[in-house]
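Consider the tokenized backbone below.
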């Protein structure tokens, strides 16, 4: 009789554990469905519900899903915090994704805050992703992108004093010309209407430098658009169906 009660008790515990695993699975599945539909706030709510009863291994996957959801919302600080907690996963393929996405988050934060240390963390994350998968072409590409941004922040800005000085001198010259008599000004205007402007007028040298800088910035902007197309690996992970992890 006691043996029968013992068996019954163990059976009830087993059913309870199975029901718990199924509930985590269902909440995660519902969250993933919301995520696929672009309902990120609803997805977050389901992941949080699933996380309440999830075991440590399940929680790591839920942190990954939550982190990618925060990223889609542009909440990069929260995404970074969640992804850091997802690094406890034992699956190396998933861990490589976590490092990759951490690199993306730190890159975004580093750009927004113009923070060199965050950009360095981004590079470190990509490097760790490549240690797991050396053939990850996108991680290599993004690592080079981040390194370029780091170099740009470390380099001193180009000198601008000569250009400013030239503008000051030209303004001074214009002020002196404005003090001429009305007759001389009319004569100068008449002559200038008949003859082309001197090549030194209009700050040609200074404008060329400015245009070059604008082209560089525009080029960098276009490159970043291309970079960000590849950046986030946002596939969410489904909890195993009815399994005790």
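A designed sequence for it:
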């Amino acid at each position: 009789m006691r043996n029968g009660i013992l068996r019954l008790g163990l059976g009830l515990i087993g059913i309870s554990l199975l029901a718990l695993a199924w509930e985590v699975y269902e909440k995660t599945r519902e969250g993933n469905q919301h995520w696929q539909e672009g309902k990120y706030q609803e997805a977050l709510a389901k992941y949080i519900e699933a996380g309440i009863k999830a075991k440590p291994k399940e929680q790591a996957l839920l942190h990954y899903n939550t982190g990618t959801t925060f990223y889609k919302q542009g909440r990069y600080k929260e995404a970074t915090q969640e992804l850091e907690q997802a690094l406890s996963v034992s699956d190396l393929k998933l861990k490589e994704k976590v490092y990759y996405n951490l690199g993306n988050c730190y890159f975004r934060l580093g750009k927004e805050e113009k923070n060199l240390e965050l950009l360095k963390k981004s590079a470190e994350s990509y490097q760790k992703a490549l240690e797991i998968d050396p053939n990850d072409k996108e991680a290599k590409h993004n690592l080079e992108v981040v390194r370029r941004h780091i170099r740009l922040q470390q380099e001193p800005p180009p000198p601008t004093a000569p250009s400013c000085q030239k503008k000051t001198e030209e303004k001074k010259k214009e002020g002196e010309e404005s003090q001429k008599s009305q007759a001389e000004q009319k004569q100068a205007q008449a002559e200038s209407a008949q003859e082309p402007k001197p090549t030194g007028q209009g700050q040609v040298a200074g404008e060329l430098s400015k245009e070059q800088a604008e082209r560089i910035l525009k080029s960098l902007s276009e490159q970043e658009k291309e970079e960000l197309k590849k950046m986030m690996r946002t596939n969410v992970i489904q909890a195993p169906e009815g399994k005790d992890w």
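Residues 1-15, 190-208, 239-245 have pLDDT under 50 and may be disordered.
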